[in-house]
Write a structure and sequence with these properties.
Helix content is 62%, strand content 9%. By secondary structure, it is of the alpha/beta class. Among the domains are: 308 residues, ABC transporter type 1, transmembrane domain (ABC transporter transmembrane region fold); 69 residues, Rossmann fold. The strands form 2 sheets. It has a 6-stranded mixed beta sheet with strand order 6-7-8-3-9-10, sandwiched between helices.
């Protein structure tokens, strides 16, 4: 993982903004051309006013000039409106691109990143922060482009009309620039603080809603409300500070421009009175002073707005800097100690083999310590042990959610790191302990891992997982909504749906994390029949706590303190291993059935 970037690195430079414009530069170019046209039409109007005044003074006709002035005025409004629309549309397109990139990136982060970051905060960065980037792109950048183009034209014509008067205006604007610059950094800091507080608020709310039944049962609504409300108040305080600083910008600009307008009017009026200048020139210069208010205001406001978007930009960039999970194989193919087939009289390689595997979620705190075992093809293997010995970690390593720190994991005789993660996972099915069911219909859930499965295959796994009765009694059958997190279903029904979903992919190896945890005696017996039938299709590795599940296994692997302490059948281990006998005695006393997380 890359080291945390410094604050300076996170500051958006023009190069960063141009990078965000990638793929949208033609639209930005069109908007710039339209803005240039609108600015040209706008800047020509004071010159036409000057022409009207001079023509009137000399007694010449002014009708055609007035018509031209009206045409320029209407055309400028239309072109400027079109330019603003194109820039705003481009900004929204950029924000959409950022959101799509964030969504794809967040869904492909390595598992250790999810372990270190709160889910709600990642959601906030993808939704709220990407929305706030509209300030940086759709408002800040567009205002900067429009204001800069208009400002250049106004300055050029003011210098051409009266460079001495322009120096007076420049001095006043410079004072405002110093004032505004001093508050911009404070706006950026307040913006970052606000976005962080908003992310924490979203994370805390997601935490509470994800366990809302526990919250209610614990009568903790007020405590959670106070916690989340504290985050909301922090976001409010940051927003108020940002608004307070931003409130300095507009008055500073207005004072500078209006102050310089009054000074120019006084000096210019005295010069006209002394016959050192013409009324027409003064009128044109004063009109440009009025026009100057727009570009200068837009430019300063864009700086303020972009600083407000900086907090969101930094948080989004932090996520995009995180490395994604690499799908390509990262290790050379491992020479297997068994043949890949039966040719030449050699035995087939085990479907799965752990060789001296060490792994820890944190450095210097290994969860697995030299784990070694084999899982033969079409066998039913039970992985047992008390809570915290590393059983679920073994399944996580098999699925390549993590890679071992030391040692090797072989699948069909090949090191798993020699195969892409997606290809490897296509051959391994996983039924998690809590059997998550996604929002949607039962059909969508069953087809989640195999969306192109045909109806016959779907019927096969429905029957294999003993879901037929459930589907028959539901009002819409497979097209019935499962509810949020599958809350419309019982725990056992969710478990069987997860099993059917995994079987639909026809995996080589099926991992079951305590599949009978939510089943009653009748459904447990049905599931055991399904497991026996499933071994004809694939190999089973089951984390088991119930003795009925353990005894049904062909091979039992006993874990303790991150090590394999015994392997064998139930009766072999009863005869030879005291640790296994103690687990059996504890299970009979009702102690082993409780721990389920490791």
């Amino acid at each position: 993982m890359k080291p945390k970037a410094t604050d300076e690195r996170r500051r958006a430079s023009p190069r960063d903004v141009l990078r965000l414009l990638h793929g949208h530069r033609r639209w930005v170019g069109l908007a710039v051309l339209l803005t240039l046209g609108a600015s040209a039409l706008s800047l020509a109007q004071p010159l036409l006013v000057k022409e009207v005044i001079e023509a009137t003074a000399s007694g010449s006709a002014v009708g055609y000039v007035l018509v031209l002035l009206a045409v320029f005025f209407v055309a400028q409004a239309l072109v400027q409106g079109l330019a603003q629309y194109v820039l705003a549309r481009t900004g929204e397109g950029i924000v959409l691109g950022i959101r799509l990139g964030l969504i794809g990136h967040v869904l492909r982060l390595p598992m250790p990143v999810y372990d270190r970051h709160r889910t709600g905060d990642l959601i906030s960065r993808t939704s709220t922060d990407s929305t706030t980037l509209r300030l940086l792109i759709a408002e800040g950048f567009t205002a900067a482009v429009t204001g800069s183009i208009g400002l250049i034209g106004v300055i050029a014509l003011m210098i051409w009309l009266d460079w001495l008067m322009f120096l007076v205006v420049l001095a006043m604007v410079a004072i405002a620039t110093v004032i505004v610059s001093s508050v911009l950094r404070g706006i950026g800091v307040a913006s970052l603080s606000t976005q962080q507080a908003t992310g924490a608020m979203t994370a805390d709310l997601e935490r509470a809603l994800g366990a809302i039944r526990t919250v209610r049962a614990s009568r903790a609504e007020q405590r959670e409300s106070d916690r989340i409300g504290g985050r909301a108040r922090s976001a409010y305080a940051g927003s108020v500070r940002m608004a307070k600083l931003d409130a300095v910008v507009a008055p500073a600009i207005e004072l500078a421009v209006k102050g310089s307008f009054i000074v120019v009017l006084l000096i210019g009026g005295m010069r006209v009175a002394d016959r050192q200048g013409s009324i027409a020139d003064l009128a044109a210069f004063l009109l440009y002073m009025i026009y100057l208010l727009g570009p200068v205001g837009m430019l300063f406001q864009s700086f303020s707005t972009m600083e407000q978007g900086m907090g969101a930009y930094r948080r989004v960039t932090e996520v995009m800097d995180l490395p994604t999970e690499q799908d390509a194989g990262s290790a050379p193919e491992a020479p297997a100690s068994y043949g890949a087939g039966d040719s030449g009289g050699r035995p087939r390689a085990p479907v799965l083999e752990f060789r001296d595997v060490w792994f820890g979620y944190e450095p210097r705190r290994p969860v697995l310590r030299g784990v070694t075992f084999e899982v033969a093809e079409h066998s039913h293997v039970a992985l047992i042990g008390s809570s915290g010995v590393g059983k679920s970690t073994v399944l996580a390593l098999i699925e390549r959610f993590y890679d071992p720190d030391r040692g090797r994991i072989l699948f069909d005789g090949r090191d798993v790191r020699a195969t892409g993660r997606a290809e490897h996972r296509s051959r391994v099915g996983l039924v998690e302990q809590h059997a998550p069911v996604l929002y949607g219909t039962l059909r969508e859930n069953l087809l989640y891992a195999a969306p192109d499965a045909d109806p016959a295959e779907l019927d096969r796994v429905v029957e294999l997982a003993h879901l037929t009765d459930l589907i028959d009694r539901l009002p819409h059958g497979l097209d019935t909504d499962a509810g949020e997190h599958g809350m419309a279903l019982s725990g056992g029904e969710r478990q069987r749906i997860a099993i059917a979903r995994a079987l639909l992919t026809r995996p080589r190896l099926l991992l079951l994390d305590e599949p009978t945890a939510h089943l009653d005696a009748v459904n447990e017996a049905a599931l055991r029949r399904s497991i026996r039938e499933t071994t004809a299709e694939c190999t089973l590795l089951v984390i088991a706590h119930r003795m009925s599940t353990i005894r049904a296994a062909d091979l039992i692997i006993v874990l303790d303190a991150g090590r394999v302490v015994a392997t064998g059948s139930h009766w072999d281990l009863i005869d030879t291993n005291e640790h296994y006998r103690s687990l059996v005695r504890a299970q009979r006393a009702g102690d082993v059935r409780v721990p389920r997380v490791s």
